[in-house]
Design a protein that fits this description.
The complex is a heterodimer of chains A (436) and B (412). Chain A has 436 residues and is mainly alpha-helical. Chain A has 17 helices and 2 strands. In chain A, helix 14 runs antiparallel to helix 15. The chains are: A mainly alpha (436), B mainly alpha (412). Chains A and B meet through helix 6, helix 8, helix 9, helix 11 and helix 12 of A and helix 9, helix 12, helix 13, helix 14 and helix 15 of B.
């Protein structure tokens, strides 16, 4: 008796099937989202040019209850249409292309059939995960309706094709239209008004004049005798604040970065969990600007206290350096590591003698770079009560109208900021060049 | 010994070659200056730590300033005569023994003493004899390149320059902790001040979500417009700000002026730019002010990134195209542009990413977008709504960061 043929499904785990379908899903979602953006733009421009002007001056055109499903279905249909009939931006970005048998182009009627089949197969699509169909195909992929091919995989087999000008392809035209729409929307939403900018030049003229004739009387003199310090004092505070945040952040980020490196942690389940948690924490913390964290810390340790700013910068530095460091650990040369492991060394010995010597120079370079960024941020963190030179900057700016030479003092503060930031930027760039 | 060795080139000429003689001292002066600065920094930090911890005051000098300056200068001279100082290490200079190595301590001391005569004796020395100054001649040491000596590796705690640098870093860290008023006790005892905030943060008020999304859209468009116009201005400027493309006196001048201007503009955070633009444009056009501030900073930053990339292009293809008789425009179009298009795109995406981050906080000074509402909410203590806006900002920044790094990966 012949042995039953082992099904392909048995050999292909579910994760592979999902992975093979991922680019197709991503391409479709991108197309759907782009049509959604077009719908948003049309709605906004309708409001701007028609509804508010001719129907209701005070109102805003909003969608009725049935409008939302309509928009969702309509954009879905447009995305499916562009998928079936053209090389859409999603397909282009993820390197997919529709081909008939033998890489022949698919004729119009069969594309129409494909468009219909997509709707019919909509509910059945998840079933392909449990059948023996080839990897990366969906219900509507047949010999007749064509198959989506990943261009990168079959590059050599593809027939030679004459490259087309961008303005004759669907993708080029759509992208150009999208760019135009975005530009139009951006112009309207940010209310760009060049005429007003020119008309009001004289309003800002005296500001520029004052800023360029800085008044340095508070350079070393206390702003409010006995209470507030001088410009140089606050500048020093800024530099020290950034230094403290950078060094302590680097000290904390150094051990943590190994926990966020896949090649160190990815050997067992526990390692994977720790790795994923670390990476998530890095990403979440990194996406909160330190000036927003300082809002909280200013309440915590006192408004205007440089410690508040230092804490905010410290937290952000841990996340930023932790990510950079652990990417560096992941990029180490595995050769020395294997050599050390071959001598029977333990995991920590491999890290100490194999990994650390490789990463020290780039760690130093990243840390210097971070100090640079922290100083820039420390100059403005006083806005929310974080201390540093910004304290004086915003103090003088708020005194405009009460102190006669307020803008001149602001000019002096900005001058000192420029000199210090520029000098430290230059030095750190030179040192990084030498290290890296 | 030939007469050419014995007598220097300027021996018979009417006036000695001061410039050439002084140029020989340039490195040694650099060494002295670096050590002087290191010692001043150490002095200032030590004095600050001492006065803060002992007297509770803030004093970087502690003595008459001239005493500090003279003492640091003297210490630098002694350091350079007796050990390898940070300046010597940095500039690759070493003290080289020209004799048999006996009476080292006395000769080093003699060198320090004789160095004090340099301001008075240098010019007569240069004018009358070979360019060997007196402190070199009598002490038997001369300052030479580090390459002349065998490279002896010592552990870091045995060399004075690493010890000094470690001390400097430690003092800097301690001083910065004192200066920023780091108070760990307060961090824990005062945590109760934020209790109400945490309570509200964990009970977010989602009714502001719709407004938040609308403000976020404005913010994203601010970043987009700033980047778009920034690119349009920065691309032509970058060709003027590239050293290898700057030809002639006009080109060099334009290059220098642009570079200086751009680094000044770049040193000022967009938030500070926004303060100026908020006054300039009419009240109510806050988003426009924010976009302008981002635009100015983007132009400066992109011009720097672009022109640095232009400076490192491969000259091979350019020469090949020029050899075919192409004109300047064609050389740029077919020789330069294909080399820079991908890095330029990558820099632009990177800048867009930064602009989105900056746009979310530029509202803090009245620059429009989501940040403006956020700072109002935190000032009015409406943290339950503020946290919703913060989450939206996080989401946007994270999405932008992720997609920009993926796109840049594909481009490289």
């Amino acid at each position: 008796m012949k042995r039953p043929k082992k099904s392909k499904f048995a050999r292909r785990p579910l994760s592979d099937r999902l992975a093979a379908l991922r680019p197709r899903l991503a391409a479709f979602l991108l197309d759907w989202a782009s049509w959604g953006f077009v719908a948003y733009g049309v709605m906004y421009l309708l409001n701007k040019y028609w509804y508010v002007r001719y129907v209701n001056f005070y109102g805003r055109l909003t969608l009725p209850g049935w409008g939302w499903p309509l928009v969702i279905v309509a954009t879905f249909e447009l995305a499916v249409l562009s998928h079936a009939f053209a090389q859409s931006i999603g397909l282009g970005l993820f390197g997919l292309r529709l081909y008939g048998p033998g890489y022949a182009p698919v004729p119009f009627r069969q594309r129409l059939a494909r468009f219909a089949a997509i709707h019919v197969g909509l509910v059945l699509q998840p079933l392909v995960l449990f059948t023996d169909r080839p990897l990366g195909t969906l219900v509507h992929d047949t010999e007749r309706t064509g198959r989506m091919v990943r261009i990168a995989k079959v590059k050599d087999e593809l027939p030679a094709e004459k490259p087309r000008k961008w303005y004759t392809t669907y993708r080029g035209l759509f992208l150009a239209g999208l760019l135009g729409l975005t530009f139009w929307l951006g112009w309207k939403i940010t209310a760009i008004n060049l005429q007003m900018l020119v008309e009001r030049i004289e309003k800002s003229g005296h500001i520029w004049r004052d800023l360029f004739t800085p008044n340095f009387s508070y350079l070393t003199e206390n702003v409010i005798p006995g209470r507030t310090f001088s410009i140089l004092h606050y500048m020093l505070e800024t530099i020290f604040m950034a230094f403290f945040a950078t060094v302590s952040g680097a000290i904390v980020a150094f051990p943590i970065s190994f926990l966020g490196a896949r090649n160190i942690m990815g050997f067992n389940t526990l390692g994977w969990i720790v790795y994923s948690i670390m990476r998530t924490v890095f990403n979440v913390l990194r996406s909160i600007e330190s000036i927003l964290m300082a809002v909280l810390f200013a309440v915590w340790v006192g408004f205007g206290n440089p410690f508040a700013g230092a804490l905010a910068l410290f937290l952000h530095t841990i996340a930023a350096l932790g990510k950079l460091y652990s990417e560096q650990v992941e990029a180490v040369d595995p050769g020395p590591l294997e050599a050390i492991a071959a001598t029977g060394a333990r995991r920590w010995q491999v890290v100490v003698y194999g990994v650390i010597p490789q990463i020290i120079p780039s760690y130093l370079a990243f840390t210097l770079y971070r100090w640079d960024i922290n100083i820039r941020m420390a100059t403005v963190i006083a806005l929310v009560g974080g201390g540093g030179i910004g304290t004086l900057l915003f103090y003088f700016k708020n005194e405009v109208g009460r102190i006669p030479e307020a803008w001149n003092y602001v000019g002096a503060v900005i001058f000192v900021i420029v000199v210090v930031v520029w000098a430290l930027d230059y030095i750190s760039a030179r040192v990084r060049e030498k290290i890296g | 010994m030939t007469p050419q060795d014995r007598y220097h080139a300027g021996f018979m000429s009417a006036r000695p070659n001061w410039g050439k003689a002084l140029r020989a001292y340039r490195r040694d002066l650099g060494v002295l200056l670096s050590d002087f600065l290191v010692l001043i920094a150490l002095w200032g930090l030590a004095s600050f730590i001492w006065s803060d911890l002992v007297h509770g005051t803030r004093d970087f000098v502690s003595v008459a300033p001239w005493i500090m300056l003279v003492a640091c200068l003297e210490l630098a001279l002694v350091w350079e005569a007796f050990a390898v100082s940070p300046g010597m290490r940095l500039l690759g200079r070493r003290l080289i023994d020209a004799r048999d190595g006996r009476a080292l301590f006395g000769r080093r001391l003699l060198r320090v003493v004789l160095l004090h005569g340099v301001p008075f004796l240098l010019f007569p020395t240069l004018a009358t004899a070979r360019y060997t100054p007196w402190h070199d001649r009598f002490s038997g040491f001369r300052s030479g390149s580090a390459a002349e000596l065998p490279d002896v590796r010592k552990p870091w705690y045995r060399t004075s320059w690493t010890v000094a640098l470690v001390a400097l870093a430690a003092a800097m860290f301690l001083a910065s902790a004192l200066f920023t008023q780091v108070d760990l006790v307060k961090l824990f005892t005062n945590a109760g001040a934020t209790a109400e905030i945490w309570d509200r943060i964990f009970h977010p008020d989602w009714s502001i979500l719709g407004l938040g999304v609308r403000l976020l859209i404005v913010t994203l468009f601010m970043a987009f417009m700033a980047t778009l116009f920034g690119v349009l201005v920065a691309v032509p400027l970058s060709f003027l700000a590239a050293r290898n493309l700057a030809r002639g006196i006009v080109g060099r001048t334009v290059y220098t002026v642009l570079r200086v201007l751009m680094s000044v503009v770049r040193s000022i955070e967009p938030i500070i730019w926004a303060i100026i633009f908020v006054v300039w444009v009419r009240t109510g056009a806050a988003a426009f002010a924010g976009a302008l501030a981002l635009f100015v900073h983007s132009v400066a930053d992109l011009t720097k990134l672009y022109s640095e990339r232009l400076e490192s292009i491969d000259p091979g293809p350019i020469e090949a195209i020029r050899a075919t008789g192409a004109n300047g425009l064609q050389v740029i179009l077919y020789g330069v542009v294909p080399q820079i298009i991908n890095p330029y795109l990558s820099f632009t995406i990177y800048r867009w990413d930064i602009n989105v981050r900056m746009a979310t906080i530029i509202g803090l000074v009245g620059g429009g977008g989501i940040g403006q509402r956020l700072i109002q909410l935190t000032r009015n203590w409406v943290w339950d709504q503020a946290i919703v806006l913060m989450l939206l900002i996080m989401l946007a920044v994270w999405a932008m960061d992720y997609s920009s790094s993926r796109l840049r990966e594909r481009l490289n």
